[in-house]
Amino acid sequence: MYGTVINEGANKGILVTTADFGPDAYEFTKGKPLTLLNGANLSALLEKHGHRARIDLREARQVLAQTE
In the chain, how many domains are there? Predict the structure, then answer.
């Protein structure tokens, strides 16, 4: 993603996951125009803006399995 942000001249890249990122991902983004948004922060952001949501990893895995 970092390469795409730079190559396309974007101001920032935002990577969203329903789970979390590993320590290496957080370390890699330091000083780069990248933001990592994990599941907990995603839920909080949605709630802040009046949206109720839940993250069901079991359901997400089932949907992913159907696309493979």
Answer: 1
* Helix (H/G/I), strand (E/B), else coil: 1: coil
Provide the pLDDT confidence category of residue 35 given band limits of 50, 70 and 90: very high
- Output the 3-class SS for 3-44: HHHHHHCCCCEEEECCCCCCHHHHHHHCCCCEEEECHHHHHH
Query: What is the C-alpha separation between 12 and 44, in angstroms, rounded?
Result: 21
CA distance 31 to 29: 6
Q: Which domain holds residue 18?
A: 2-67
pTM for this model (two decimals): 0.69
